[in-house]
Design brief:
3 domains; EC 2.7.13.3; five-stranded mixed β-sheet; ArlS_N; 14 helices; 480 residues; transmembrane helix; rod-shaped; single chain; Heat Shock Protein 90; Beta-Lactamase
């Protein structure tokens, strides 16, 4: 970027320099041309070739009178025609005027000009040429002089404009632009160094942290948050989120393997025990054979459900990646799920209090909402041994949807309410094992709800039943 600015500045400076140079030279060219025309007007009425005797009286009457021993005030025939001194008018101008005769010999010059100096090549008309003499520009304006009466060539006039003012201005301008360019390059270089260092330093730090995490996936090294609202600040934020997500996946994998290994130990031991029992006595004892096969099948089914629930729990932790834009109609899912549960559990009375607005929408995958409702209702039914009744309340608040599943079962103590959402936690382990539970249902429900920015809570009292409430943000119209 600094290089582009520097090059642009240099190009701009060159353009400015060229424009100023052209304007100044054009001004001087007009002055030189006026002088050439003035001299031509004085000399073109000479009928013959130009000589010093007929040139000086017309260019400098005062000089001629002094040469003749007359005072400058005396009147003569020449004064009648030309009473001004064009040579004197050049006193304040750094110009050299040279008059040549037709053969190229110097007739007159107002400067220190060598009379043997060769006349430059002059065309038929007025011509102006810029030449470089000792690194200074000169404007050479030349023109042939012809007799006004006969039209014959009588001599030549050459005006050498030293362009002192122009050269001084251009020199100052070059010095000024060179100084500005050098200062600009230094400033731009410092600015570029600061910008590049400001960008490269975080990138190098990210590379260092990447290597550290690659060597130790559990490393907690993170990029410091950059206080800048640009792409680099966003990149650092995304980089840290990526590392957090990656480590979360690693921890999920470790926890999954550890939990499955721990929970499978019991059913595997049971199956192994029954197989050993069959090996010893089952071949000859039908009762032992039947009992062992039934127990083994029960444990195998439990292992199958356990593995499926663990997979569901793992998937629930990756919802924001798999289902980022899913939208669900809460009315339809509730009606469908409650209808299915009524059909499956005909021994239960399920009351549905629908206070939802028509077509209430939330940002959630339909199957996941259905899974959460089934987990809560199935869990309520497991612990409703005496009063087989459920109440489901659904309502639309200002900016959220509330769903409450209420049972009238055993209830949950305050101490256990803090633990029921933990993995593999069971309120009554013996009874839960008989009912086939693994203690993962509420953990899955909590993960699913929170993954969609919802909340799940429980209000319970021993002997009076429980209320599980879930809340989801209401989908706004502009998000549809």
């Amino acid at each position: 970027m600094a290089a582009i600015i520097t090059v642009s500045f240099v190009i701009f400076s060159i353009i400015i320099y060229s424009v100023v140079k052209r304007q100044l030279i054009e001004q001087e060219a007009r002055v030189s041309n006026n002088i050439v025309q003035t001299f031509n007007d004085r000399l073109n009425n000479i009928p013959g070739k130009l000589t010093i005797s007929n040139v000086v009286p017309r260019l400098s009457p005062n000089t001629q009178r002094l040469l003749e021993g007359k005072t400058t005030k005396e009147n003569d025939q020449t004064r009648q025609h030309f009473n001004d001194d064009v040579i004197a008018s050049l006193a304040n101008r750094e110009m050299t005027v040279i008059i040549y005769d037709p053969s190229g010999s110097v007739v007159f010059s107002n400067g220190n000009t060598d009379t043997a100096m060769k006349m430059p090549k002059i065309g038929k008309n007025d011509q102006q040429t810029i030449v470089d003499q000792n690194h200074r520009l000169h404007l050479i304006d030349s023109q042939p002089i012809r007799s006004e009466s006969s039209g014959k060539l009588t001599g030549y006039i050459v005006v050498d404009n030293s362009l002192s003012r122009v050269n001084d201005i251009l020199r100052s301008l070059r010095l000024w632009m060179a100084t500005i360019s050098i200062v600009g390059i230094i400033l731009f270089s410092l600015f570029a160094f600061f910008i590049v260092n400001n960008v490269v330093k975080p990138v190098k730090q990210m590379s260092k942290i990447s290597r550290a995490v690659n060597n130790d996936p559990n490393s907690q090294e993170r990029m410091p948050v950059l206080k800048r609202n640009d792409e680099l600040g966003e990149l650092v934020q995304n980089f840290n989120q990526m590392l957090d997500r990656m480590q979360a996946y690693i921890q999920q994998q470790k926890q999954f393997v550890g939990d499955v290994s721990h929970e499978l130990r019991t059913p595997v031991a049971v199956v192994q025990g029954h197989l050993n029992l069959l090996e010893r006595w089952g071949k000859d004892d039908p009762e032992v054979l039947e009992e062992s096969i039934e127990a083994s099948l029960q444990e195998i089914n439990r292992m199958k459900h356990l593995i499926q629930e663990m997979l569901d729990l793992t998937r629930a932790e990756q919802i924001d990646v798999q289902f980022p834009n899913e939208v669900t109609n809460v009315n339809e899912v509730l009606n469908r799920t409650i209808s299915d549960m009524r059909m499956i559990h005909q021994d239960f009375v399920i009351t549905y209090n629908d206070a939802l607005k028509p077509d209430t929408m939330i940002k959630m995958y339909r199957n996941h909402l259905e899974q959460v409702l089934i987990i809560l209702m199935d869990n309520a039914m497991k612990y409703s041994t005496d009063r087989k009744e459920l109440i489901v309340d659904a309502s639309t608040e200002e900016d959220k949807v509330e769903i409450i599943v209420q049972d009238f079962g055993e209830g949950i103590s305050p101490e256990e309410q803090k633990k029921i959402f933990n993995r593999f936690y069971r309120v009554d382990k013996a009874r839960t094992r008989e009912k086939g539970g693994n203690g993962l249902g509420l953990s899955i429900a909590q993960k699913l709800v929170e993954s969609y920015h919802g909340k799940i809570s429980v209000i319970s009292e021993l002997g009076s039943g429980s209320k599980f409430k879930i809340e989801f943000p209401l989908l706004k119209d502009e998000e549809d």
